[in-house]
Design goal:
The protein is mainly α. The chain is 55% helix and 0% strand.
Length: 102
């Protein structure tokens, strides 16, 4: 079944600007697991790249979980994880490893 494209980021002059897209349309778009997974992956990649000048967080699932759950945090060379980041590291990452190693 071919998916109907709800919108394209190219609809705006600046791909980081989504002013032309309603919140309800964006939420509907992100409800699709394919899109939400891509969104989550791009957020994690963004955080890894953003912190790379100071520290490599790519293998720190607790830190990535913290950044994902808290949003923008000032970059520094000694990041610490919050309870949510620790939960993600402890529970979700092992499950993902198991799923993707099959």
């Amino acid at each position: 079944m071919k998916r109907k494209r709800m919108f394209s980021l190219s609809q705006t002059q600046n791909p980081k600007k989504i002013d032309g897209i309603s919140q309800s349309r964006l939420y509907k778009y992100l409800e699709d697991p394919v899109h939400s997974m891509n969104f989550a992956a791009s957020k994690i990649r963004y955080d890894i790249n953003r912190w790379a000048s100071e520290i490599d967080v790519s293998s720190r699932m607790d830190i990535l979980g913290t950044l994902y759950s808290r949003g923008e945090i000032d970059i520094h060379d000694n990041p610490d994880s919050n309870d949510r980041g620790k939960q993600i590291d402890r529970e979700f990452y092992p499950i993902a490893q198991e799923i993707f190693s099959e």
